[in-house]
Write a structure and sequence with these properties.
374 residues, 14 strands, globular
């Protein structure tokens, strides 16, 4: 008897398979991937199949010395020499990698560990309590769902998410889920302060006044996403997060110690290894646009694993993009960075138009910047 490969099965026509119905039933359950795992699934539903075996090959031996930079922020406010060294390292990291990790950033490890625990508590609480927050209405300040663009993507990712819009218009404390209410408020305050510091360093790395990017409102909005990646019975068939770039100005990521985050560098996937006490920083599409490709927003992904759950918190810095919140502010390549030799690569856009395109396209594996190139 002929044994069909996964690719053949995916490519074949199955008159009994109704993808839309499977996705709807999954979404209607409001239990997410965690609900599937709790039900004891041994095979992942077909809606999660990526259509090919996931390539988990790490970087080749010849490039083993390459790694995502780790930058120490200790004493940058007390030593001009250290400050200048850090600005130089950030300029290089943002241009070459689009990713780096920061240590000695001022946020206590105890706060970071409690934030991870708070997100874990939310996803592991009684499903009936969790379901009360389940929604796909992006205007809600608290969003619990599985897969942002579930109904548009070719396949679903093996993760659930709870998101909180914490700036510029934070929810009332009583609106936040009680399992992470206090730590979400504390962590958001500290991550906003760190974000402002990094935007100052970004500005200097571009040769601009330290306050330049902050005055552009790059740090005005903060949206925290608490991701939960349950153990996957068939991790070779799906992704925790498929290949994508971030649509914001900057993302700061707190990841636990399980690993799985990878960044695409020189056409190879490199691990971003967990470093206890470190935070991952990456350039978003909007920062690549306004820096006219001086800084790069690169593809990254998260692998699925038999081990889990993996927990991470992604803090997205982006100006408000709700049409009701006055988002007609226009962004384009920063004039001070342009010259005859460095002509603008992108047209001017509003956050609203850019985010509308980002959400409409979903996770299709392509950068959201393409349509905005001149």
């Amino acid at each position: 008897m002929e044994v069909k490969s996964t690719n053949q099965i995916e490519a074949g026509t199955d008159s009994n398979y109704d993808r839309k119905a499977e996705i709807k039933a999954f979404d209607d359950s409001k239990a997410g991937v965690k609900g599937l795992v709790d039900s004891g699934v041994k095979k992942i539903p077909r809606m999660f199949h990526s259509g090919k075996f996931v390539d988990t090959t790490e970087n080749s031996t010849s490039d083993s010395m390459l790694s995502v930079p780790i930058i120490d922020l200790r004493d940058i406010h007390n030593s001009q020499a250290l400050h200048t060294e850090v600005v130089t390292k950030i300029q290089s990291a943002c241009h070459e990698w689009g990713f780096f990790q920061v240590i000695n950033h001022g946020i206590p490890i105890s706060v970071m560990d409690e934030m991870l625990d708070g997100i874990r508590r939310f996803h592991e609480q009684d499903p009936d309590v969790r379901k009360q927050f389940y929604t796909r209405d992006l205007k809600n300040k608290i969003l619990y769902y599985s897969n942002t663009s579930l109904f548009r993507d070719k396949y679903a990712n093996w993760r659930d998410t709870v998101g909180c819009s914490m700036a510029p218009y934070p929810p009332k404390p009583e609106e936040l889920p009680s399992v992470f209410r206090d730590i979400m408020i504390e962590y958001s305050e500290k991550i906003m302060l760190l974000g402002c510091t990094i935007f100052e360093l970004f500005s200097e790395a571009l040769g601009l006044h330290p306050s330049y990017l902050k005055e552009l409102n790059c740090a005005k909005g903060l949206f925290n996403q608490g991701h939960y990646y349950p153990p996957c019975p068939e991790p070779e068939l799906t992704m925790g997060a498929s290949k994508h770039t971030d649509s914001d100005f900057m993302t700061i990521v707190l990841q636990d110690q399980l690993g799985g985050l990878q960044v695409l560098h020189k056409d190879q996937w490199f691990n971003v290894p967990p470093v206890h006490g470190a935070l991952v920083v990456n350039v978003g599409d909007l920062l690549q646009l306004i820096t006219n490709d001086s800084f790069v927003s690169v593809y990254h992904r998260v692998l699925s694993s038999h081990i889990g759950p993996r927990v991470s918190i992604a803090s997205f810095f982006v100006n408000s993009y709700d049409p009701d919140e006055g988002t007609r502010e226009v962004y384009g390549p920063i004039k001070e960075l342009l010259s005859e030799e460095n002509a603008p690569i992108y047209r001017d856009i509003t956050i609203t138009d850019f985010m509308a395109h980002h959400f409409a396209k979903g996770l299709d594996g392509n950068s959201a910047l393409q349509p905005f190139r001149l």
